[in-house]
Amino acid sequence: MTSLQQYLSKRSTNVVDNSVISIYEEIEQAKQDWIAAGKKFNYAVDKDEIDFAIFSLEAAEKRYEMLLRQAKELQITKLEEKKK
Prior knowledge:
Helices cover 85% and strands 0% of the residues. With 84 residues, it is mostly helical. The protein is elongated. The model has no long low-confidence stretch (mean pLDDT 81).
């Protein structure tokens, strides 16, 4: 059990449920940011814009992957399953 899981297991149910919802919302926002970064890359024209678009795209992708790993670590699959 990871330290994050241990911390959450000691908290009240409401706090854990709020944490699950918060992570789910962060994942959704990170996904939208990643999509937006991809669109910006498609419209980049000069060298500096392209470099910045690549940096933004890679950063958004890494953040999305990190949040997915955190959710997996906490065994969060779908928000709907947690509500049942």
